[in-house]
Every structure is written in C-alpha cells, then in structure tokens.
Fold:
Amino acid sequence: MKSVIKGAGYILVHTPDMVLRNGTTQTTERIVNPDSEYLKELPSHLRSFEQALSYWPNQVYIGNKTPDELSAVEQPWHDKVCDVNARNGKFGQIMPQEEFLLLMQSCDVFDLVKLDKDFVAAHKAALAANPLMDETIVARINDGVDGAEIARLVSEEHSEGLYDHDKLVGCVNRAHDIDVNLSAHVMHENLVSKASSVLALLSAVKNAGIDKNEVEYVIDCAEEACGDMNQRGGGNFAKSAAEIAGLMSATGSDCRGFCAAPAHAMIEAAALVASGAYQTVVVTAGGCTAKLGMNGKDHVKKGLPILEDMIGGFAVVVTRNDGVNPEINLDLLGRHCVGTGSAPQAVISSLVTAPLDRAGLKITDIDKYSPEMQNPDITKPAGAGDVPLANYKMIAALAVKRGEIEKADLMKFPVEHGLTGWAPTQGHIPSGVPYIGFAREDLLAGKLNRVMIVGKGSLFLGRMTNLFDGVSFVIQKNSGEETAAGGVSEEQVKSLIAKAMKEFAATLLAQTD
Structure:
C-alpha cells in the first residue's frame, strides 16, 4: 500500500509584541544590557499587521502567490508591496495578534491564561467570525478579569505578560511554584506552539476536504518539548492540539529532531499509512517564540524592519492511496547516518544522490528540490547568505561531478530545479516542508513528476552530540490505483467479494428451500 498527500495547511501569526518580550535575542539583551540602544530603537522597526499582510514571502507562504512569482520580484522584498494583501489564502491564513491571544486561551485547559475583560469584549467577535473557529473553540474563551488583577499577577506572581500594542492585556501564569520547566515563560512558549498548531491542523483538514473524525493519528514535529513535573520533555503536543481542533478519533505523539523534524515526521506518517496501521495521519507543527526577532540586531543596524515577527505553523494530511493524489515514495529515502560526517558534499550525497542511485535515477530526474527554504530577505542582512541558493549550488556541483550536467549549466540548475526561499525563521519550518502544498498542486496538474523534500539540521544545541542530521523523501505523481497481489485492482477485489457474498447467500436460500 502507498501513502499520498491529501492536503496541507500553512498559517502565520503576526506577533510584534512577542518579538519585544519573548524572542530570545531580546530577552537575553534585557538581561545583559538592559539600557542598550538596540532595545530603545527596536519598537520603531516593528511592522503593522497591514505591512505584514503585504509582504511578498508571507503571501507565498499562505498560497496567494507562488514561488515562481516571488523569484521574479527583485530582492530585497522588505521595501516592496505585494499586489495581494489578503489575510486568507488557499493554504491558510495570517492571523492578527489580538485573535491569537484569544486562541491561546482556548487552548489552555489549566486556567493559566488570563485576559483583560475589556480586551476579550473587543476581540471575541472577530475570532468567532473566523471560518476555522467552531463554537466549541469560541466557547472556551471566558469573559476575562480586571486589568488590575493581571498587573498584580505579572508583578507579584511571576506571570508572563501578554501585550497588544505595548499594552498589558493578559498574562500566562506559572504551572508550578518551583519547577522551572513549568514556569510562566515556558508555559507561554508551549501555549503559543500549541495554538498555532491548532490553527494549522484546522487549515489542513479543511483543505484536504476530510471529516475531522477521519484523522486517526497526529504527529507534532515542532521545536518545543512539553513536560515535567517529572515527565521531563515527554509530553504530547500532538494529542493536546488534536483535542482543541476537534479530532476526536485521533491519537498521536511528538517527533523531535530540530530543523529536520518535519521531514522525519513526514516519513513516519507515510510509513504508518503504508503499513496499514492508520488510514489518515496528520503531521503538524506550531511556531517558536524564541526565534522571533532572532536576527533583529542585524536588521535594526541596517535600518530594516523586524522581519521575524511571524509565528509560523504547518500541517500535512497523509492518507492511503486514492489513485489521484501525489505519492510519497518510501523507496527513495535519503538519510544522514551517524558515520556520514559533516562535510557539505558528504551531507548532500547522503540525502540526495544516495537514494537516487538506488533507483537508478539522475539528479536531473528530480524536477524540483526543496531543502532549507529560508527567506533570504532575513538571512542575507545577517550574514548567512541565501541559504536555498547555497544548497542548490552544492547539488548542482554534484551533478557536474557525476557528468549529469555541463559545468556551463551550473547556474541554470537553481532556476530549473530550485526555489526561492520564503519561509519564516522558525527553526523547523523552513526545512523542506513549505513547498509541499505547492508541490502537491503541480504534481496533480501534471507540471512535475517528482520533487524531493530535504530536511537538514544540526543537533549540537542540545549539548548531547555534535552530529549533523538530515533525511529526505520524494513525492511523485500518482502512478494509479493501488493494486492488490497478482495485479488485481481494489475495485476488482470489491467486485469479487460482492460476487462471492451473493453466491453464498444464494446457496443458503437454496438450502432453506
């Protein structure tokens, strides 16, 4: 049995106040240099919601513009205004901060999120009008409390403030008096990840056109790890988000692998469906507040707006083969093994050429590659260059070395087989998966035959290993209805069973006569 991609959802949340108070670059600066010029100047570099809506990469992320259209726009993009500034796209939506704070409270099942009653009254109707929000989610929002009580909780109880336009409008309380892993700061991070995952799940299920009860398993592959006291990091974002999203027939678990986690999770989902263990699996990931404004110092220094002001999320629905949707080919998996090493050529070879060689394919037999889809508007001012382009140059160099393209065509490769990056800096999200929604459409339309999703990441931040990490998989045009052993199609099997049952019934009737 093969597994196919039935649909995908991509969401963004504009969170300028969280940039100031929750992004690691900013929170660290407040500790080591609280009177820095950077912190004083930072607020003037924040974008409005309208500016975020008209930013080209954001409109690509939710599906209103294509990667090809983006590549035709001269860089940088931060000073350009996209001709589409819609909040909703074919893949998902861009949610404003006000509604997201209410969604966070909907996702809180331990009464940790407190919101100002005037703030709730002003914005509850807007969230209720969101087509993805049903009455069960809206009903979870309470009427709120007095602003004075919120101010007291922040000043006296170590609660994490929730702000909108620099005004305190709520807080997240700590979940334990002494466990730092259940502090208000960590609970805030976890609830942001959960709420953005819920929004992505709802988008993906809607886009796939399936009933919520069809989802049997959910895999969360975000950066956070919920846990303690004393569960440590063994909690379950997947099931907790599925609960709020109303996926009542689903169970699930978390997959953690930093930047490469989404690719790992997609392979796991495809394998679960292909094995017959589950019929419908959804891979999901919410966003990461720690990455907000991560390169803010470089952006401010160069007079740019803070471009890392978006919480990102995605979800992909994987189901058993329907004879139509693009297949995930489990025979074409690349993997960075323990013994591969960290040399760039060795990494790319293990993820790209090794699986192709097993199938007798050339590098050019893959129509499009999606490695790290980092937005160059963000990375280039920070000195990291154009990350997708660097990956394509390495793949192209291997193709030249293998004699599959001419050296003179080296720079044509990124144009013909590559993509321009558009993903928000959220660690795990840029690594390959932002293209899945577009890839599915292009494969269905017959524009492409094969695409490769490449997830890469370094593991050293956990201080457990210096190893690199990565896996890849190929999505291909559907080869036709799944066939049973002996070449008999599923429809033929159904017909044979129906015929056998009729004959059996006729036999029983004859015996009673």
Summary: Residues 483-488 have pLDDT under 50 and may be disordered.
